[in-house]
Amino acid sequence: MKIRNQKLLRDSASYLLIALFLYLFLFADLHKDTWDIPASLLNVNTIFLSIILEAIPFIILGVFVSALIQVFVSEETVRKMIPKNPLLALLPASLMGIIFPVCECAIVPVVRRLIKKGMPLHTGIVFLAAGPVLNPVVFASTYYAFQSNPQIAYGRMAMAFVCALLIGLTIYLLFKNTDQLKHSAGDVSGSGHVHEGVSRWKSTFYHAGDEFFDMGKYLIFGAAIASLFQTFLDRSFLQAIGSSDFQSPAIMMAFAYVLSLCSEADAFVAASFGGMFSAGAILSFLVYGPMIDLKNTIMLLAYFRAKFVFVLILVITAVVYGVTLLYQALIL
Known about the structure:
Layout: H1 2-35, H2 39-72, H3 75-80, H4 90-99, H5 104-116, H6 121-130, H7 136-145, H8 151-175, H9 200-232, H10 235-242, H11 247-259, H12 266-271, H13 279-291, H14 294-303, H15 306-330
Helix pairs in contact: 1-2, 1-9, 2-7, 2-9, 4-6, 4-8, 5-6, 5-14, 6-8, 7-8, 8-13, 8-15, 11-13, 13-15
């Protein structure tokens, strides 16, 4: 009951926040003389809603595809696609996201189920790292968000592919195929919700609706933080750190971790930083966030051993930062 009340409170706060922004967007001009609303707050509102409205179509598409996978595709089918050779398994695992585009909001329990069914640990981690980025929905949203610079979309795919392979190889060298799951935890369904006694198609729509509202809260939070950053942070400070090839990727990776955005919508937040950060920093944001962020860390700690999770975070951070620096030196 306590957990349900906390969830209800968080959901209500999210809905009230977006309702307030929508009201200000539609009716602020009617009250600006009476309320004396500062121009800076109106700017926050405009940026926030622009991010939300651009991202929603891609989130709807993403959650529906994810729900179809949850209902119609078995983990056993996916496991049969992976070669038994641990090194050869890295490549198909990194490309599974193209066929099974699961957002990072849902991929942790999916990977856990796959590992419990026999998928090697390092192969599951490759899918966890690559799946939320290397899929058609994320590519389309990134291409749309960066229409003036489509190289960002192609660079994101290339960097995510290389990083996922390196992360999987490192995890294999460190842990082989040892068991890192917490078996005391209860079995977890793909979306965190169970819909019994209904048809598969009805269940698909139920899962899609559940996931939409679950990830929508993170999008609202991320868009609000991004709009506040855009409006109130000193532009000269951002330009100073954003122009550094060494500092700016680290800063944007930290932003990605804290904001915990859905990979189907994070490109629109990243695009709003385009004038302040280098292309390499933007790419580090777009690659790092879907692989590991605050909400994923909490989920990983619930399903995997703590030592493994912290090592995984360090590996992902080091690999993404190193590949970003290499990409900047060779490509940009």
